[in-house]
């Protein structure tokens, strides 16, 4: 749990600073988290960490290798401002208090809706994604520890990290923190699904180090699921997951343009190719039935009162 807490705190600090946290600052944050764990009866919040940094107890002064209050404040000045950014400005109200809605790991599935934070900008959205992932994986850690002690049933878990590219591009160094979230999941009986639009999203990351680490996600994936992709993108995928000629033509055909015919179904809708290593891919098609069609409609704002689509109306 300590590593989860510290990793998330480092990721959030990296996000608002838009640069990496120094080694010295990481040591101080780690010691602050340890002190709060000893002193508090609840999980420490960002406010708690900021408060103890400002208080500067002897344990933190020792961690900073300083011998006076003035030198300690000078050493931690940038870190204090960074943490203050997490509870002020555009992020005010997000990290100011403990979590109010615990996750129920006994539920068949859990989905955390963070759609309302999109209007607040990419920074808040990235922070929300990192927090929900870290919180969920931390809950799995706790459940696994209880199972090891025989205090809870042992279960398997599947974590879905959608829109991965959004969480990685927030600031240099965030790829490392995202990797830390999932690195040991296999040993805890948890599989991870990472979803992104294309490998080109990873090429847009700020540093070569981040780009290499992000591509490592794809390299290490035991299973790759491909939706419709254009030839150029498919060539990138082929470098990581070899595809036969027929497989490439099939996946490319799913990315064909929409028909001009109003109401026509996109040729690639619901179609995927499942690849495991160099084995032949398995093409599958997902068909929605009954109320699922309306439930998973992502274009309701384009619909007119009489059932016609605004785009269809423009064509007419």
Automatic annotation (TrEMBL):
<dbReference type="InterPro" id="IPR027417">
    <property type="entry name" value="P-loop_NTPase"/>
</dbReference>
<protein>
    <submittedName>
        <fullName>Uncharacterized protein</fullName>
    </submittedName>
</protein>
């Amino acid at each position: 749990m300590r590593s989860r807490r510290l990793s998330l705190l480092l990721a959030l600090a990296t996000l608002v600073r838009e640069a990496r946290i120094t080694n010295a600052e990481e040591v101080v944050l780690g010691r602050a988290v340890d002190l709060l764990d000893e002193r508090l009866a609840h999980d420490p919040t960002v406010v708690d960490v900021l408060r103890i940094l400002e208080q500067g107890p002897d344990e933190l002064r020792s961690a900073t290798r300083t011998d006076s209050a003035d030198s300690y404040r000078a050493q931690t000045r940038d870190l204090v401002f960074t943490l203050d950014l997490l509870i002020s400005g555009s992020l005010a109200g997000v990290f100011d208090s403990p979590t109010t809605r615990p996750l129920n790991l006994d539920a068949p599935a859990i989905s955390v809706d963070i759609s309302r934070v999109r209007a607040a900008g990419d920074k808040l959205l990235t922070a929300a994604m990192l927090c929900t992932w870290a919180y969920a994986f931390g809950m799995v850690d706790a459940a696994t520890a209880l199972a090891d002690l025989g205090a809870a049933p042992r279960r398997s878990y599947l974590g879905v990290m959608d829109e991965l590219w959004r969480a990685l591009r927030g600031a240099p160094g965030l790829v490392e923190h995202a990797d830390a979230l999932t690195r040991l999941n296999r040993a805890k009986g948890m599989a991870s699904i990472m979803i992104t639009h294309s490998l080109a999203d990873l090429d847009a990351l700020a540093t070569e180090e981040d780009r290499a680490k992000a591509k490592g996600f794809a390299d290490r994936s035991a299973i790759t699921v491909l939706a419709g992709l254009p030839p150029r993108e498919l060539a990138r995928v082929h470098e990581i997951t070899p595809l036969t000629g027929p497989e490439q033509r099939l996946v490319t055909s799913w990315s064909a343009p929409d028909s001009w015919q109003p109401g026509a179904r996109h040729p690639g809708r619901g179609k995927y190719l499942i690849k495991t290593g160099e084995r032949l891919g398995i093409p599958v098609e997902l068909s929605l039935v009954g109320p699922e069609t309306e439930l998973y409609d992502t274009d309701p704002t384009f619909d007119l009162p009489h059932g016609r689509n605004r785009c269809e109306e423009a064509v007419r």
